[in-house]
Design brief:
Number of strands: 20
Helix content: 25-40%
Strand order of the largest sheet: 13-14-12-17-18-20-19
CATH class of the largest domain: Alpha Beta
CATH topology of the largest domain: Alpha-Beta Plaits
Structural class: alpha+beta
């Protein structure tokens, strides 16, 4: 093996004896090789280099680094060698290509030495292939995050925002720089339902059990508006119970919520008039009854049927009939308070729910107001169309204490009103007698 002779060693190392230098060369954790500059023949290599190449040292010594495949091609080796000879030292020269037959990237650190009168290169090699792969993965991940349609945030273990993407800014209006180190809870309304209060600690506890949390929340935009979002939050760390970071993905579900609300409205409202339908009527009446039993305030149900609608529909056609029903709905709503409800059951039948009525006479007064409004003719082009109505009234708790009973009793009272000559109001009470235009029904 060639010896490192004092006068031919770089001045900075001239005071080291050969044994110490050889020990340093042998024990360095980096692949290290000494080559003859003009031929690239390997004179000395350490164990780390032999392991890296995948050959025993006796199959390496005396062979060219180009022959072994240390360089992608002879031209690259010649270029780097020329730099070392010209400058005396090069550091971190990146070389990429098929090195030892594998796609690799290596940093060359090489210094010119004189060994036994020959110009040699002492080279330390750093294989950064894995690091390059990770950098590429990180660039791809960063690009994917920035191009994602979903808002993505990276949080520290305390829920503070470390990083966010462009979609986050687009959805919320907050620039990424303005939310760094800000607790994510300051941007979230963790539960649109006030009866279900989530906190970040609740979510963290759930994450500790399953490693993931999903839920519908509201995110606050920069102008204070609430944006409905679907949040998927995952814990990151070596120990599931002790995460170091969290990654949150927010999906704007504004359109989904609007669509769901449209479907709900269609399911609960009459398509023609927009009034609540039978399903919503029963739902509302159930809530009203619960309130009645809690506060003991009066509750009444009015069952309304148009007297002459069939004749008008047959005479003027279905389009006019539909238009008349829409106008009837408008008149009914104009007669009532905001807390009252008017629903269309179908055809020309409507039901009104009155809350906080003081007495039966209060309910009858509202019924008279409704009857007077519906008794006015409807102007349709050159025609004056008269419909009129009959109304049956039921009072809670006298005539029933559930939705079905009250509607049924009001319906019975309505039939009595029609039998007694239309344009009448019938109250379902006992005993039966007359009071002005009010017919009292034995229900």
């Amino acid at each position: 093996m060639p010896q490192f002779v004092g006068p031919h060693v770089v001045p900075a190392l001239s005071n080291l004896d050969d044994s110490l230098w050889v020990q340093f060369f042998t024990c360095t954790p980096l692949p290290c090789v000494l080559t003859q500059a003009d031929t690239s023949i390997i004179w000395v290599c350490n164990d780390r280099f032999a392991k890296w190449v995948g050959l025993p040292s006796h199959d390496i010594l005396g062979r060219s680094t180009v022959e072994l495949g240390l360089w992608p091609n002879a031209q690259t080796r010649q270029s780097v060698c020329a730099q070392v000879i010209a400058q005396g030292l090069v550091e971190d020269v990146e070389v990429s290509g098929l090195i030892f037959g594998r796609p690799s990237t290596v940093l060359f650190n090489s210094q010119k030495l004189l060994v036994n009168g020959a110009v040699c290169l002492l080279s330390y090699l750093v294989d950064i292939t894995r690091r390059k792969e990770i950098e590429t993965q990180l660039r791809l991940a960063h690009t994917a995050i920035e191009q994602a349609a979903e808002a993505i945030v990276v949080l520290d273990s305390r829920g503070r925002i470390l990083q966010s993407n462009a979609a986050f800014t687009e959805i919320t209006g907050f620039p990424a720089s303005s939310v760094v180190n800000q607790p994510v809870t300051e941007l979230l309304r963790l539960s649109p339902n006030p009866k279900v209060q989530w906190s970040f600690s609740d979510i963290v506890r759930h994450l500790g059990r399953s490693g993931r949390w999903d839920g519908d929340l509201e995110m606050q935009s920069c102008n204070g508006a609430a944006v409905p979002v679907r949040l998927s939050l995952a814990a990151v760390g070596n120990e599931p119970s002790r995460p170091t970071h969290y990654v949150g993905v927010f999906t704007d579900i504004t359109q989904r919520k609007a669509y769901e609300e449209t479907l709900r409205h269609q399911a609960l409202h009459d398509a023609l008039t927009g009034l609540p339908n039978r399903t919503l009527l029963h739902e509302h009446l159930d809530h009203a009854l619960a309130r009645f039993h809690r506060l003991h305030k009066g509750l009444a149900v009015l069952f309304i049927d148009l007297d002459l609608f069939k004749q008008a529909n047959d005479t003027y056609g279905h389009d006019v009939g539909d238009g008349l029903l829409v106008r009837v709905a408008e008149r009914l709503k104009s007669c009532l308070r905001g807390a009252d409800l008017v629903a269309r059951l179908g055809g020309d039948e409507f039901v009104v729910v009155l809350e906080d009525v003081d007495s039966a006479e209060h309910a009858l007064a509202v019924a008279r107001k409704v009857l007077a409004s519906l008794d006015q003719p409807y102007v349709w082009g050159a025609e004056f169309i008269h419909l009129g109505a009959s109304i049956g009234v039921a009072i809670c708790p006298d005539h029933g204490q559930d939705a079905a009973q009250l509607i049924n009793k009001a319906d019975h009272a309505l039939y009595l009103a029609k039998e007694n000559g239309r344009g009448q109001i019938a109250l379902c009470v006992q005993p039966e007698n007359n009071h002005g235009s009010v017919r009292r029904s034995r229900c």
